[in-house]
Design goal:
The protein is α+β, with helices and mostly antiparallel strands. Helices cover 15% and strands 42% of the residues. It has one domain. The two termini are 17 Å apart.
Length: 66
């Protein structure tokens, strides 16, 4: 059983996003990528590549090898 004790608020500062105009990533796609990783309250900041998000922090996790 995995229980969450609190939610951490974080910011990711992604360097080199959309530099040079080749293979540009839209902020909507960046937001969707963070949401796909189970982050909550995802917000991109302008077109900087910076992302604010929340993540549930596990109180404890146990993994059994079978």
């Amino acid at each position: 059983m995995l229980r969450c004790s609190h939610v951490a608020e974080d910011v990711a500062f992604l360097r080199g996003m959309n530099v040079g105009g080749h293979g540009a990533v839209t902020m909507e796609d960046l937001k969707k990528a963070f949401e796909a990783c189970a982050f909550k309250d995802v917000k991109t900041i302008a077109t900087s590549g910076n992302v604010a998000f929340s993540a549930a922090m596990a109180e404890a996790a146990v993994v059994e090898k079978g």
